[in-house]
Amino acid sequence: QKLLNMTGEEVLPIDSYLEDYKKQLCDRWNNFKHHLSSIIKNEYTVTNFADFSKYGFFVECGNQFYRLNQLDEIEKLTDNPVLVFRQWSGNAKTMSVVGDFNGWNKTQYMSTQQVYGVHTIRIPFQQENGKFILPIKLGSVYKIYMETYQGEHLFRHPLHCEYALHNDKEMCLEPVFYGHNTFTFQNKRPQHDQLRIYETHIGMSSKEEKINTFKDFRENVLPLIASKGYNCIQIMAIQEHSYYGSFGYQVTGFFGASSRYGEPLEFKKLIDEAHRLNIAVFLDLVHSHASKNESDGISRYDGSNFLFHKEDHPLWDSKVFNYKQVECQRFLLQNLLYWVKDFNVDGFRFDGCMSMMYWHRSAGVGYTGRYGEYFDQDCKVDEDALSYIRLAHVLFEELKNQNVKVTTVAEDVSGYPTLATPLLQGGIGFDYRFQMAVPDLWISMMKKGFDQGLNDQENINIGKIRHALINRRYQEKHICYCECHDQSLVGDKTLSMWLLNEQIYTNMSIFQPASDRTKRGIALHKVIRLITSSLGGEGYLNFMGNEFGHPEWLDFPRVGNNESYKHCRRQFNLEKETTRYADLSRFDVKLMGLLEKYQIQSGREFVLYESEDKKYIIYQRGNLIFVISFHYEDQWIVVPMRVKCWLRLELNSDLKMFGGTEDEKDWSVEVKSREDVEEDVKNGMLDYEYGCKVFVHARQAFAFEIRK
């Protein structure tokens, strides 16, 4: 009710630049209120509106209802249970459930009537030896058959299909009747104020040339991630997709955990084990578009475009959701609630927010951050998409009343204001937004020649690095990263590949001397990751394997590579003790431990001094002082401070265990009065009263704890 009483102006105190666009803010809030009030009027809550439990297949017995993930309860039923199939298909004149179980008979189990577009089909249980048996055998292939009002005859997957297997002969997915006994999650959902996200993909998580499984990931990969110090996994490509090479972004089955990796029950076990390890589980969620597949997807589902706009996505050759349509909203909100309720998922990274929020779908449009780009008359904002995103966050707000916290992250390139501002402050509602300018900065530096030559400095711009890392929207939390899966794909290069080039294959054994190129690459790899995680964002993300400089690119099996899995895996075996990859891995573990111990990402950063000539920067965040040098020469650096104290070394990127030159030691440096600092260096302290000097090697980084 509070949201319905708001006007949209509540966000103005947060961002004064929005004052000129008060009308647009109010209009967009009114659009949201229109959708929300309609839901509240008819369904009382968004949670009720998004209830998925009586869609797809379920069992009715008297006035009790059971899902197919309660087979042990269903087996006990004695009062003439009925298998029910229910689905909204407004353009279907008739609807039938057909399959192996009834010889594909189109008229045996049929709905000839719809109520507000909803078809209901009832299939009585069979009786054997005095027991009621499900009328469709587990593992049976089935489909939904529809005759449309235009006379089309269609075979389709259910919209809420939870399990489909690939038919190699037909080259498509086939829905399979699936259920399992009641699974009770044993471990509580982790609660983390500061996220260290490990972006991962189940299928490519094995060192072997194959598609990995939920079971193997649970048993072997999850413990590895936990040992690395990450407290959250963001799993890609979970929603079912017919084409493996789409990286999971051409979704065909929104309610199915991809069967390539195993059964849904195995995914639930994976999530429960992650929670035992205190790791939160986020899904990389695709609600920005859908695959154009019809036979095994949801495109033209009932012969109409009821879920979608008529125009296809201009870049992705896919269908674009029509967020204005009530049943589209219901379908997508049901999908969110399904993953949270059935699988105990902790959060979502919303993919392609820019594609959702603008009518141009991000095709050939760049943004400079000028507010008129978001609010002028020709801004091309899809207000209904914004309203859908807000409705999703109303759902998550309601779930908080059930002690279920869902965290959301927006992937948005445009920089839309208030995207990560809470709903109750008039924002869109996301908890975090990706700080996407940062990986662009690092890669642009590489492409301009930073990876060339051992001592080149012209492409290192400390001011640009600092600006990219601290240029974040006020009171909006950001997830920062050096690189993600995008840079790992074939056609692009990871930071380690840019920095090491051919040395990544020939000079990574500790039994051979490191070349100058290798020393430089390893040093910069550590420095870049340290400054990104400590100066940028309120959370941090890493794509699996990049923490230790995983060589080579990602390339899914396809005709062009003879369907090879050679480059569609993660070689965690490279982290063994005899490689320089192990040095990078140990450094990343230490870095994650530092972020966990000091929880610095909840606080603001303060840049104390930077030198463009000497290529270094000094800043404070929380109770830590960071000294970062990108220079190719050793140098003395003054650390300016406002109080007398001691600085105790917590992290040194140049330790031998990290592939550097120094032995580990426990040491502190005293911060003294300005007069006590040697004349030849104290001028660098500017107007600070106190300071100390630190000797820094080429491309070295320190983190010091402040001690009084």
UniProtKB/TrEMBL annotation:
<keyword id="KW-0328">Glycosyltransferase</keyword>
<dbReference type="GO" id="GO:0005737">
    <property type="term" value="C:cytoplasm"/>
</dbReference>
<feature type="domain" description="Glycosyl hydrolase family 13 catalytic">
    <location>
        <begin position="201"/>
        <end position="473"/>
    </location>
</feature>
<feature type="active site" description="Nucleophile">
    <location>
        <position position="351"/>
    </location>
</feature>
<keyword id="KW-0808">Transferase</keyword>
<dbReference type="InterPro" id="IPR004193">
    <property type="entry name" value="Glyco_hydro_13_N"/>
</dbReference>
<feature type="active site" description="Proton donor">
    <location>
        <position position="411"/>
    </location>
</feature>
<dbReference type="InterPro" id="IPR013783">
    <property type="entry name" value="Ig-like_fold"/>
</dbReference>
<dbReference type="InterPro" id="IPR013780">
    <property type="entry name" value="Glyco_hydro_b"/>
</dbReference>
<dbReference type="InterPro" id="IPR006047">
    <property type="entry name" value="GH13_cat_dom"/>
</dbReference>
<protein>
    <submittedName>
        <fullName>1,4-alpha-glucan branching enzyme</fullName>
    </submittedName>
</protein>
<dbReference type="GO" id="GO:0003844">
    <property type="term" value="F:1,4-alpha-glucan branching enzyme activity"/>
</dbReference>
<dbReference type="InterPro" id="IPR037439">
    <property type="entry name" value="Branching_enzy"/>
</dbReference>
<dbReference type="GO" id="GO:0005978">
    <property type="term" value="P:glycogen biosynthetic process"/>
</dbReference>
<dbReference type="GO" id="GO:0004553">
    <property type="term" value="F:hydrolase activity, hydrolyzing O-glycosyl compounds"/>
</dbReference>
<dbReference type="InterPro" id="IPR017853">
    <property type="entry name" value="GH"/>
</dbReference>
<dbReference type="InterPro" id="IPR014756">
    <property type="entry name" value="Ig_E-set"/>
</dbReference>
<dbReference type="Pfam" id="PF02922">
    <property type="entry name" value="CBM_48"/>
</dbReference>
